[in-house]
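Our working data are protein records whose layout never changes between entries. Getting from the letters to the tokens is the skill we practise here. To make this concrete, we reproduce a full record directly below:
***
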Amino acid sequence: MLSYRHSFHAGNPADVIKHLVLAETLSYMAKKDKPYDYVDTHSGAGFFELASRDAQKTQEYLQGIAKLWNYSGSVSAISDYVALIKSFNEGDKLSHYPGSPKVAEHFLRRQDNGWFFELHPKDLELLKQNTAHKKSLRVTGSDGFKGLLGLVPPASRRACVLMDPPYEIKSDYDVAVKSIIKAHKKFDSGVYMIWYPVVDRERIDAMESSLIESGVRNIQVFELATHADTQERGMTASGMIVINPPWTLKKTMDKVLPELVSLLAEDDGAFYRSIQLVEE
């Protein structure tokens, strides 16, 4: 049940879009002095060595961050993302990749709080090691779906939530949406993000339909597909559903996504989506 480990997938195209959206969102939230809470419901180990046996077994980073490492294009959000990842590496060599906890930590200030959940025993211990240097970063070895509901509304009255379960259990698609809807009912002004993989397009359609029917307002979807949709090759795309996004986010992603398709496409069927799923 707890077999998923992100070390096999660190730095792949799914991480690129997930962490670029996360970085843009947290950067925006940090523009106000008022503190905020960041909640990461499925954190993983938090930091990855790309020379590790796991990463080298799949080498998925070669299809993601490695292709962007020497980016010299005109889309500033991509340049900023690459610079962020380079800050976790020595010199100009790509050797490490930060998970969402370390990406978030980069933007969290002294007055902010980070809450991290992880169930896998080995990744939990690594996560604790990778966050032990700051008391404001709190790690819990419990279910993030349930843990989120105990953290909203936060005392700060500002929050950003990232929910990216492994989806090894097919019910995760439904549970993720229901958990976010429940949290939104308790605290409707928070920023909520759900990362999803596209293996079966019908599951993503169902997630979006559930959110539309929920009554939750102001939902955007950003998706990067490096392959055409098919059920014959596993994950072909991934995306981020964002509730209450920064007002600048869609304009930014409208520039980012076509550039990422041109840089990361694996076949002629590559595409992107940047849509306002539900209006404000």
